[in-house]
Amino acid sequence: TQLINQIAAGEVVERPASVVKELVENCFDAGASQIYVDIEQGGVKQIKIRDNGCGIDKDDLALALSRHATSKIASLDDLEHVVSMGFRGEALPSISSVARLTLISRTAAAECAWQVSADGSEKNFDPQPDPHPPGTTVDVRDLFYNTPARRKFLKAEKTEFGHIESLIQKLALSRFDVGFSLQHNQREVLHLKPAATQAEQEKRIAAICGSAFVDNAVKIDYAASGLHLHGWVGLPTFSRSQQDMQFFYVNGRLIKDRLVAHAVKQAYQDVLYHGRHPVFVLYLTLDPALVDVNAHPTKLEVRFREGRMVHDFLFQALHRGLAEQRP
Ligand code: ADP
Ligand code: MG
């Protein structure tokens, strides 16, 4: 089991940012409206994530740290199947096989919170009372302490934290309704209140992409033939070089796609004569039947059923928006 967990962990846990991704997604699943992410030393020393979501019943805590599929993995074929499915439902057991994990949780109905922990092969699944408020904290320490080969592949603290920060930015732009706080080595790096109105959303975008972007951005809001695009695109008058400040969400999910990149670039070139490194935050919504999301949960790829149509729609939407605001 320990070995299977560690193999599984290789899929789910590549670096500190992959732990953060799994844990924050669990907070979303729990219906949290506030998520606190505390990082020490790039996440290698500690990743602590607290939410105000539904919490976990005392009786289910041990289960949350146990591998549900273990009993089903009888052969290498089974294992390969599980690997190719991306180990859904296996994040916490996988993480706890390569780090020291403490899970503390309290449901609204419970009188107090309860804590369990797992540390490599050592399990303390007998819940201990804890003064934690309603919601859940997952505390992950000493990542890869028992897999030195993996640990060696980690980059400098600054680089690993950079991955975490950019992940939180992406997640924060996908869920305006959730508040986020991000700390590194006890310093607050991001503090984002839940954002309902457009002004509040623009404040969040300013905190992430810079206020120069928001102040000069063109607002896009365009619908045609069942597709809807809305968001903000920067005019190239704003020249802070931020190649990774390109956020494109399809039905709420961040993607990187060549067809999308091409449509954006063409619209810029057509209106402004160049399309170098534009900054944008865009949300496309369309019938889910028109997109295939790659089965692997860590991939950012999609395939559009009607690629040409989506491309032309995006070009149209952006071209109009940009042309109206041509400086
Ligand atoms: P999955 O999310 O795919 O079910 P995980 O290993 O990520 O698998 O989590 C295991 C289980 O632990 C979840 O199904 C959920 O019941 C519980 N859980 C994990 N994190 C939280 C959280 N932040 N709030 C409430 N429940 C959680
Ligand atoms: Mg999960």
TrEMBL record:
One of its GO terms (molecular function) is endonuclease activity. The keyword DNA damage applies. Residues 205-323 form the DNA mismatch repair protein S5 domain. It comes from the Bacteria. The keyword Iron does not apply. Keywords: DNA damage, DNA repair, Endonuclease, Hydrolase, Nuclease. Belongs to the DNA mismatch repair MutL/HexB family. This protein is involved in the repair of mismatches in DNA. It is required for dam-dependent methyl-directed DNA mismatch repair. May act as a 'molecular matchmaker', a protein that promotes the formation of a stable complex between two or more DNA-binding proteins in an ATP-dependent manner without itself being part of a final effector complex. This is DNA mismatch repair protein MutL. The gene is mutL. The chain holds residues 8 to 334 of 629 of the full protein.
